[in-house]
Amino acid sequence: MKKYLLASALLGGATLPALAGITCNMTDQRGNTLTYSFAHGGHGYTNEIVVRRHGETISNGGPMWTRTFDRAGRTLTLRQSDWSIVYPSVTGYDRATLFHNDNAVAAGVCDPDYTVDTSVVAGTPTHNPPTYTPSTAPSYGGFDVPLLVDNMGLHIDVTLGPMVYNMIVDTGATYGSITATIAESLVASGLADWGTGMTSVLADGSEHQLRTVVVHSVEVGGRYASNVDFSVTQNNNAQMLFGMNALNQFGKFTVDASNSRIMFN
Questions:
Q1: Residue pLDDT, tens place only, 26-35
Q2: What is the structure's pLDDT at 64?
């Protein structure tokens, strides 16, 4: 319920017993813990109060961040220069993502913080966010993810933007697939871009044009991949697929169906 009340306060809706700021606790792709705290601010902006890495203050009384609300995607975005934090505005969806440009850098949770209010005034901007250098090579290995095995196949939980979805591991598919509704929501939220499309050749030799979408942040087992292509199915009841292009971004893998695990190394 707190998440909903926070969104209402930020948007000038419900009345709270006290004005709430926001604190985002996240972990980046290198295992650093990051804390961003903001005042509740006014319409369309908020002051950065403090940024910490592993508990050490790296920015104190920093710059102003702009704040926008995507009603269709049910997300709020805080933005300062090339950096942005996207987090849900509805109850029950706790995932928040820190981006540098279009690259997902860290993920965690943004919660109401009643310890920061309008009495805090931003000083000289000293913003010093974590340095991020994108890499095309897989950044992580040596982890395993639980599988759900049923008569449809091997299922894993995959986080796309702020949401977790159950997807079938399809090692026979070059690209995975997601439904049109989810793809459109991610694009509307700024968490994905439409791709260039692809041609699918069926067993009978017929060709079909498919829409594609590039999802900026994909999480499996606490690890992240950036800018992953998926085909888009118009059947919103279809089971979504996790294909080889996504799997390979997390490293070499072994499927152990008997123990219901997929292991990356």
A1: 887 677 889 9
A2: 86
Summarize the confidence of residues 127-138 as an average pLDDT: 42
Do residues 8 and 71 lie in contact, with contact meaning Cβ atoms separated by under 8 Å? Answer: no
d(CA 223, CA 80) in angstroms, rounded, equals 25
Stated pTM of the model: 0.49
The pLDDT value recorded for residue 109 is: 86
Query: Average of pLDDT values for 146-170?
Result: 88
- SS3 assignment, position 69: strand
Domain covering 143-264 assigned CATH 2.40.70.10 in the classification: yes
- Gap between the Cα atoms of 258 and 162, Å rounded: 31
Residue 144: name the closest of 245, 218, 221 by CA: 221
Instruction: Answer whether 87's CB lies under 8 Å from 76's CB.
Output: yes
Pairing of strands 56-60, 75-80: unpaired
Beta partners for residue 57, in sequence order: 52
Q: Report, in angstroms and rounded to the nearest whole number, the Rg of the chain calculated over CA atoms.
A: 20
Mean pLDDT of 166-181: 92
* DSSP 8-state class, residue 188: H
Residue with tokens 């699918």: 200
Nearest to 97 by CA among 164, 162, 34: 162
In sequence order, what are the residues at sequence separation of 6 or more whose Cβ sits closer than 8 angstroms to the Cβ of residue 93? 3, 74, 162, 163
Q: Which two tokens stand for residue 106?
A: 């860290």
Angle at 44 between CA 58 and CA 11, to 5 degrees: 110
For residue 243, what are the CA distances in angstroms to 169, 240, 262? 6, 10, 14
Going through 5-142 in order, the beta strands assigned E by DSSP cover 21-28, 33-38, 45-53, 56-60, 64-70, 75-80, 83-88, 96-100, 103-113
Structure tokens at 142: 């040596």
